[in-house]
Structure formats: C-alpha cells, structure tokens
Amino acid sequence: MNRQKNEQKQHQTVTKTIHIGKVPIGGGHPVVVQSMTNTDTRDVDATVAQIHKLEKAGCEIIRVAVPDKIAAQAISDIKKAISIPLIADIHFDHRLAILAMENGADAIRINPGNIGSDEKLAKVVATAKDKRAVIRIGVNAGSLEKDLRKKYGGPTPEALVESALRNIDKIAGMGHEELKISIKSSDVLDTISAYRMLSARCSFPLHLGVTEAGGLIPGTVKSSIAIGMLLMEGIGDTFRVSLTRDPVEEIQVAYEILRAVGLRNRGPEIISCPTCGRCEIDLFSIAEEVERRCREIERPLKLAVMGCVVNGPGEAREADIGLAGGKGVGILFRKGKTVKKVKEEYLLDAFWKEVEAFVNEERKEGNNR
C-alpha cells in the first residue's frame, strides 16, 4: 500500500488550493469525498437528519438542491445544525445563487450556460467574492451551450472542455478565482477523455464524477472505472459517486475506490469469498451483516469472512479479525492465531465481539501514544 501511495504522489497533478469552508481542495491535499442530499431542502429536519447520516459515513462536503427561494433561505438553519461545508446547487435563476450565499452556503454549483446573461453572472460572482464562496463551474453534457453543441455536433469531450475553459475565463475575468471545475457525462470514456484534456489546460481543482450513472451495480461500475482511472493518473481533487440509491451508499463506494487506488484508507476492508459448492454456512447473510455493521467504524482494519477451508484459513489469518466456515461451524482468527470454534448460529455475534474488542484496543493504544 505504501508503494502504491508513493506512486500516486509522484504522478499527482498539483492544482491550485481552494477552501470550501475549512476543507482544503487541490494543491496536493487528500482527495475529498462529496455527496448530495435527496431530501426536499425546504424540509430542514429531514435534510439535516440525512446530512448527519452522511457525515457519519464519511461525507466531507454536502450539496443540496436549491429549486426556489424557500430552499435558499433554509440553508441558514441547515448550516447551523451540521459540521461539514455546504454547496448550494443552482440552475437557471441567478437570484437563488445570491440568496443561497447570503444564507451561508460555502460554495455554489452553477452551470454558467444556463444561469442567464453575463450581467446576471456578474452579480453572482460579486456576491461570491463578498462572501468568500467558492464557485463550482459544472459543465454537463445534457446542458451544453447551443453554439458548442452545433460546433462539435454534440456533447463531445472537446465541447465540454471548451465550455469549461470559456466559463473559467469569464468568471476569472470578473475577478474571482476561487473555482472548482467539473465536466460530467454519463458516458465513461467521454468523461475520462474530457478530464484528461481539461487537466492539461487547467490549474483549478477538478471535481470528478459520472453523471446519471445509474443504480448500485451500473453506477458503481461506471464510477469506479472513470474516477478510478483518473485518480490513478493523478487527475482529480474531489469527487462524487452518483447512484440512484441512498446517498450513504455513494460514500461507501467512494471510499472503496480511494482504498483500491491506494489514496485513502477509511474503515474496514472486508475480504469475503464468492462462495462455491464447498461452502456449508450461510455466508451471504453473514457477510452482508458484517458489511452493514462496519458502516459504524472509521478506523482502518482488515476483516476476512470466508466460506470454507480451501482459502478461508489462509485469508482469515492474514486479516486483523477473520472467520472461516465449516459444516455448520466457523473458526475465528485474530492476527493469524485461532481464537475459537463457534457454531454457525453464534458465529456472527462472536465474530463481531472480536471486532469490537480489537477496535477498542487499537483506540486505547492510539490514545496512549
């Protein structure tokens, strides 16, 4: 893992550092994980409750939709109840962008192509400068400017990049350079190509993502390929995994991507086998419940949930805590040593007690250092 991290640092594209609230983005800082609420922003209690769940899962910046004046005003109360920076997502009405920042939004996401005239945009930029708010220029394949769509024959990577650079020049020319850029497409290869081109021509932090990626399986696959490849090339300072699911699952997938490419390590890494005809315990249920319970753990550790004696003991012994199944029983391992043999009906609880004890011991050791 250390070798992998060093390789990442060597190839990282260093961008300008900006701050959304107190969170630094770009400039070689750790890649930041974001998500977006799917509650009605006007329902402050529901929105705050969802943000708290996302915070617990590891979300570091949250975005909320602002469809009207009431939603923009609700940002003030939402901000008071959360501890992570908030981005207001604005389309079409420049007045909502201004009102959102006046109510405490740390940043706004706008698509300059649909925000209106340059005069309206200038008013938004003036407020951003006054409030020290970051502007995320969000270019989307679905809302590309008409002239660029005509020029390139559609939302090609070249068209997306030209749109981004055009709007960067426009806003920077108005005296505001606290910018973050995204150029999203639902097409994985177009997304990768566009970000590669933009990275070579832009020093502002880049927000990665595949828009409208789909449900859990297609969305995870598309996001993992596009975001993972770009991060491996040193491109990207922050990202969101867009899924048609509970946004908490977006955070879980995001950290698995970061772990897989060797950039960040949060929470348990779970190794589990796909099962085969040799498996004689209900490993699906056990693994699923272990995964659910692990959402509450922030500390990195390695857990193994294995179904039989072929690979199970070996993998389990390599983990901090592991189990390997047998016929209606399982063997628990801790740091390579056998702990006990447990009947299947007690296996999950026994395994989890070992996990909790291990985490508590690690925490105590950390506090005593």
List keywords for this structure.
369 residues, alpha/beta, TIM Barrel, Sulfite Reductase Hemoprotein, domain 1, 2 domains, eight-stranded parallel β-sheet, five-stranded mixed β-sheet, 13 helices, elongated, disordered N terminus
Question: How would you describe the overall organization of this protein?
Answer:
By secondary structure, this protein is of the alpha/beta class. The protein has two domains: 2-260, Alpha-Beta Barrel (TIM Barrel); 268-368, 2-Layer Sandwich (Sulfite Reductase Hemoprotein, domain 1). It has 13 helices and 15 strands. The chain has helices at residues 2-11, 44-57, 69-81, 94-102, 118-131, 146-152, 157-173, 188-201, 216-232, 247-260, 283-293, 312-318, 344-368, and strands spanning 18-20, 23-25, 32-36, 61-65, 86-89, 107-110, 134-140, 179-184, 207-208, 238-240, 268-272, 301-306, 321-325, 329-334, 337-343. It has an eight-stranded parallel sheet with strand order 8-7-6-5-4-3-10-9. Strands 11-12-13-14-15 form a five-stranded mixed sheet, with helices on both faces. A two-stranded antiparallel sheet has the order 1-2. Helix 2 (44-57) links the parallel strand 3 and strand 4 (61-65). It is elongated and about 70 Å long.
